[in-house]
Design goal:
Blueprint: H1 2-17, H2 20-28, H3 41-60, H4 62-71, H5 80-86, H6 98-101, H7 128-131, E1 134-142, E2 146-153, E3 156-163, H8 167-180, H9 182-188, H10 197-212, H11 214-227, E4 234-235, E5 248-252, E6 257-258, H12 267-288, E7 290-292, E8 300-302, E9 308-310, E10 316-318, H13 321-335, H14 339-349, E11 351-352, H15 359-375, H16 385-392, E12 395-396, H17 399-418, H18 428-439, H19 442-484, H20 489-515
Parallel strand pairs: 4-9
Antiparallel strand pairs: 1-2, 2-3, 3-5, 6-8, 7-10, 8-9, 11-12
Length: about 525
């Protein structure tokens, strides 16, 4: 209780320090027209205030840093000036000495119950410095959730990500406080009574839980390795499972240059990298349904052999088959410049709250969105246009959509910084071809037939019982009719025979489908 009270006081002090209570109330509740680059006078004023919010979140630690990054995905909740400022939130924090980090991995013993049998991989029973050929105790990266070290294991260079001690306890405490203050805090932010506070916090908690579990991240890595196993141009690191724990992730160290640090590269290299990055990401979304949710320039590495590597798989997104199909058809409609198709699938993705929506105005805006998507060549990012359309017409999009939009925004940002003339539609033709071939390949057709066959088989199994129940119901019904009117006995006999023949016909048709 004392820790919670102390954390409450800390949060209030930081908010007062940056005068956030009055700033947020006056800024976020305002309705005004903003330009894309937030260069108008009122935007500049609000961005100065948004910078104070960013500094407060950085000062309050991992939970609030992640909260700010999450809110930067929601242009439906915050003004553009705040979105742009929160998107620059830094996760760099003071480095903890290695001895202070030991508590994160030395507490749990994985050895057998017999004391004499110590596992050679146990950090509790062995010093971590002895388990590795070499171990540099100075971290190569430090963030609010963990630190990354470089080591050599069995002759191979590895990167070791270790969670900060007590970070889970701090985040859980902050989540409790956010839940306590949800009505006050989000009301202060001006999100409105229709905003699903509980749903937002549940999704936020789920995201943090996944990022704090390094075994979960290791599973994500394995899934990406499977998805890119036939693509030599995209490198995914190996995982060393014997040395990986909930709070320790050991993976292959990849040599290369972060995309954000590339300078003075030739045009051919730029073209190749942009194509690789955009194609790999479109594949993740529209073919795999499993995408990297934080693909900024520091998480994409350019390798000497001309390929790229992906890093940091704690934040991912999963698209169910229906949503993935609708997203692809929306993309295809935009690619084919088919306003009706794009509109139809946009409505399938989102839920229209206002049934009196002006469909003609919506299609006019969709037509403009499609034109921008195809003809914009001035380094202007287009990926947030869909969210803004949803905001304008009061359309509720799936929670995963905001994560997807941010990821696409980051990919666009990476590609545009490499090539200001980049347009995602330039890669659409290849994607559409690959997607069509994948969806209608013999293997996929066979898979769908097998799925349908299973459904028919289950229908066959239940058919006799259904027919029997139908006959019983008919018996009860017609016997009642018979008692009321004996003269209808002949009609009952004929109808019963007809029902029986109909059931036989249905069964025969089902068997025919099963066989073929």
């Amino acid at each position: 209780m004392f820790e919670k009270s102390g954390r409450y006081i800390r949060i209030i002090i930081v908010f007062i320090k940056y005068n956030l209570f009055s700033l947020l109330y006056t800024d976020i509740k305002q309705d005004y027209i903003s330009d894309k680059k937030c260069s108008c006078q009122i935007d500049q004023k609000y961005r100065e205030n948004a910078a104070k919010l960013k500094k407060a979140f950085e000062e309050l630690g991992p939970t609030f840093i992640k909260l700010g990054q999450t809110l930067s995905n929601r242009p439906d909740l915050l003004p553009r000036a705040y979105i742009m400022e929160l998107d620059t939130l830094h996760d760099d924090v003071e480095v903890l000495p290695f001895d202070s980090m030991r508590r994160s991995f030395e507490g749990t013993c994985i050895c057998d119950t017999v004391p004499e049998e110590h596992s050679p991989f146990c950090y509790h029973c062995n010093d971590i410095l002895d388990l590795y050929d070499e171990f540099d105790t100075d971290p190569i990266a430090s963030a609010s959730i963990g630190q990354v070290y470089r080591a050599v294991l069995n002759g191979r260079e590895v990167a070791i990500k270790i969670a900060r001690p007590d970070v889970i306890d701090i985040i859980n405490l902050d989540l409790m406080i956010l839940k306590d203050l949800k009505r006050v805090l989000f009301g202060l932010l001006g999100f409105g009574k229709d905003f699903d506070v509980d749903g937002f916090l549940d999704d936020f908690k789920h995201m943090l839980t996944r990022e704090l579990d390094y075994k979960s991240e290791a599973l994500n890595i394995e899934r990406f390795r499977e998805n890119f196993k036939d693509n030599e141009k995209v490198k995914i690191p190996d995982v060393f499972w014997d040395y990986t724990r909930d709070t320790v992730l050991v993976m292959e160290f990849i040599h290369g240059t972060q995309i954000q640090d590339l300078h003075d590269i030739d045009g051919n290299t730029i073209t190749r990298l942009v194509k690789l990055i955009s194609e790999s990401y479109l594949k993740q979304i529209y073919l795999d349904g499993f995408f990297h949710a934080d693909p900024h320039g520091g998480n994409i590495i350019a390798l000497e052999n001309g390929s790229i590597a992906l890093l940091d798989f704690g934040a991912v997104g999963v698209l169910d088959s229906e949503l993935q199909w609708n997203l692809f058809n929306l993309f295809y409609g935009v690619y084919k410049r088919d306003v009706d198709m794009a509109t139809d699938y946009f409505f399938r993705i989102g839920a229209v709250k206002d049934k009196s929506i002006d469909i003609h105005a919506f299609k006019e805006d969709m037509d403009m969105l499609i034109s921008r998507q195809h003809f914009s060549k001035a380094g202007e990012k287009q990926s947030d246009n869909y969210v803004m359309m949803a905001v304008k017409y009061n359309i509720s999009l799936p929670r995963i959509f905001s994560r997807l939009e941010r990821a696409l925004f980051l990919i666009e940002d990476v590609c545009i910084k490499l090539d200001p003339a980049f347009n995602i539609m330039d890669e659409a033709e290849a994607l559409v071809g690959k997607s069509m071939r994948a969806r209608f390949s013999p293997g996929m057709i066979a898979k769908n037939i097998q799925k349908d066959a299973t459904n028919y088989y289950m229908m066959f199994r239940s058919l006799p019982a259904r027919v029997d129940r139908t006959f019983n119901s008919l018996d009860v019904f017609f016997m009642s009719m018979e008692r009321r009117n004996a003269a209808k006995q002949h009609r009952y006999s004929v109808m019963k025979k007809g029902a029986f023949m109909l059931a036989i016909a249905i069964l025969a048709a089902a068997i025919l489908v099963w066989v073929t």
